[in-house]
Design brief:
The protein is mainly beta and about 190 residues long. The protein has strands at about 10-15, 25-35, 40, 45-55, 60, 70, 75-80, 85-90, 95-100, 105-115, 120, 125-135, 135-140, 145-150, 155, 165-170, 170-180. It folds into 2 domains: about 10-100, Jelly Rolls (Sandwich), CATH 2.60.120.10; about 105-185, Jelly Rolls (Sandwich), CATH 2.60.120.
Length: about 190
């Protein structure tokens, strides 16, 4: 789908509620290809977390805050979607992973795990989503085992488990995204 400001395209992975428009979602998960410098779309009342998943990186300027460089090994970067944000590419196009939640309705946390061996993961959010970037991974949770290819997405069943074992089949990053929905939005730790 086109960016809100028309400057590029995004692959929308998941939204809540399903199929919600850009001005009506509670939370949204997407990936984008950024091929040129420019302003980010403004999203009033939205909190965002951005992670570079391919390319050399980008430099973000969020309002009057000091610029931040993000690369393919950087910690996910959180910022307010209603503050004017510009980006400059460091050395060519990048791909990113973007998580957005509507302030006062939901909250979120994104963790990047750089993996070379199995990892035990736990989560606390009402919604937990996993995405490998790089090699395939095997995910074992709630008595089930699945194979995910790079950029595949899995939503974990909160009623079945709040932990999993992720085994990489080569070097990869595994992103764990936790979302606290309305009834628990005020319970976000940290």
């Amino acid at each position: 789908m086109p960016w809100k400001n028309g400057g590029g395209e995004t692959i929308e992975i998941m939204t809540s509620p399903d199929g919600a428009a850009l001005d009506a979602f509670d939370w949204r998960l997407s990936m984008a290809h950024v091929s040129q410098a420019g302003p980010f779309s403004l999203f009033p009342e939205i909190d965002r977390t951005l992670s570079v998943i391919a390319g050399a990186g980008l430099r973000l300027t969020v309002g009057a805050y000091p610029p931040v460089n993000l690369g393919p090994t950087s910690t996910p970067f959180s910022f307010r979607g209603d503050i004017a944000t510009d980006c400059t590419l460091i050395d060519g196009p990048i791909d990113d992973l973007n998580v957005m939640t509507r302030r006062g309705h939901c909250s979120h946390r994104v963790a990047r795990h750089q993996m070379t061996e199995p990892l035990n993961l736990r989560w606390q959010g009402n919604v937990a989503i996993g995405i490998p970037i790089g090699s395939n991974v095997t995910v074992a949770a709630a008595g089930e085992t699945i194979l995910l290819s790079g950029k595949d997405t899995v939503e974990f069943d909160r009623n079945a488990a709040s932990a999993c074992v992720v085994t990489p089949h080569g070097d990869c990053d595994f992103f764990l995204i936790e979302i606290w929905q309305p009834e628990a939005a005020t319970a976000l730790p940290g």
